[in-house]
Amino acid sequence: MFSELKPLPTDPILGLMAAYKQDTNPNKIDLGVGVYKDEQGDTPVLRAVKKAEAFRLENEKTKSYIGLAGNLDFCHKMESLLLGEHGTLLANRVRTAQTPGGTGALRVAAEFIKRCNTNATVWVTTPTWANHISLFEAAGLQVKEYPYYDYENKGLLFDEMINALKQVPKGDVVLLHACCHNPSGMDLNAEQWKVVAELAKEVGFTPLIDIAYQGFGASLDQDAYGLRLLADAVDELIICSSCSKNFGLYRERVGACTLISKDAATADISNSVLLSVVRSIYSMPPAHGADIVNTILSSTELTQMWHEELDEMRSRINGLRTLIKDSLAAKGVAQDFSFIDKQNGMFSFLGINKEQIDRLQKDYGIYIVGSSRVNVAGISQANIDYFANAVADVLK
Ligand code: PMP
């Protein structure tokens, strides 16, 4: 049976990581993989997480199964984090299942959508996080794209986006990135979110919000602005969240799939279907990471510590955006890179071509994915000059 299989290409980012590891250039820089890095290039365990883990080690009483929805205290904490005060108003319409990471949340959401409407199409931004497309297709859903990033002007194709969304049939799902759009870093502003929320109500599609970077853009609350607006505007909403980035819990696989239904009775039915989906994929989520998040959010002291650490990460990213813009300008690069400072989160497209990307890798050991997406957090005070010189050289 196995001999019938044809080999599949490796994921380009994983390939890039392997090539980076083998590179012996002492000045090499990894701007490919999508994890936060500090000034030393490390992705450390947050202090609040370490404290919560120490507490858990002492106090954990059993390794028996948790339920299908995971840790219910964690689920409620996530609802508050996502919805803020709106969470209390909407409480009887909201149901959450803890999932293995944001990817798990998306896969559960995909299977849930399939159960709601076998013929549903999921509309995603052009471009989007590459895994979105494979995830939804793997669940047997159709995926179509709507215009989003303006490669030429480094902004949004907002009018084109709205025109496309007006044509989306009722019963389809529109995926929106809550903040820190991956891969472009280009987010909707408050006015644009209002237009989208109105449109969702008018057209009748179901919005699915992917929020994988809450707190990495402007603040925990501001990054959830669009999500909360939609939660108020529409009858039905799907939210897929991740604690990988904002809690630095990547490998512990912590996320959640939250459903907002039109009333409490529908919410119970939706929840029963959601849990049946969970049962047939992985039965129950892993306990450790969600317990850490719950411990942090249950303690004023640890929450405060986490907020400080999150602020640190966000300030560093935003500072690096300004630094990249200024350093490239200082090297006399003709192209305008001021857009980098206006975008959010870890990612932006440099907007350079394949040949220039290859030269950065070959001549300088600077690793960037083929789309020219860079992880801003890979830059530091120590390597910015080397990076800016290299970019200036390949753009000459
Ligand atoms: N959505 C987006 C847009 C992402 O960038 C990511 C992580 N790269 C995820 C979801 C999933 O994150 P995880 O499964 O690691 O929690």
UniProtKB/TrEMBL annotation:
Superkingdom of this protein's organism: Bacteria
All residue ranges annotated as the Aminotransferase class I/classII large domain in the record: 27-390
Enzyme Commission code: 2.6.1.-
GO biological process, one term: L-phenylalanine biosynthetic process from chorismate via phenylpyruvate
Obligatory cofactor(s): pyridoxal 5'-phosphate
UniProt GO molecular function: identical protein binding; L-aspartate:2-oxoglutarate aminotransferase activity; L-tyrosine-2-oxoglutarate transaminase activity; pyridoxal phosphate binding
Gene3D superfamilies: Aspartate Aminotransferase, domain 1, Type I PLP-dependent aspartate aminotransferase-like (Major domain)
Classification via Pfam families: Aminotran_1_2 (PF00155)
CDD domains assigned to the protein according to its UniProt record, in alphabetical order: AAT_like
Single GO cellular component term: cytosol
UniProt xrefs under InterPro entries: Aminotransferase_I/II_large (IPR004839), Asp_trans (IPR000796), NHTrfase_class1_PyrdxlP-BS (IPR004838), PyrdxlP-dep_Trfase (IPR015424), PyrdxlP-dep_Trfase_major (IPR015421), PyrdxlP-dep_Trfase_small (IPR015422)
Keywords annotated in UniProt: Aminotransferase, Pyridoxal phosphate, Transferase
Quaternary data: Homodimer.
Family listed: Belongs to the class-I pyridoxal-phosphate-dependent aminotransferase family.
PANTHER family linked to this entry: ASPARTATE AMINOTRANSFERASE (PTHR11879), ASPARTATE AMINOTRANSFERASE, MITOCHONDRIAL (PTHR11879:SF22)
Listed name of the protein: Aminotransferase
Organism: Pseudoalteromonas byunsanensis
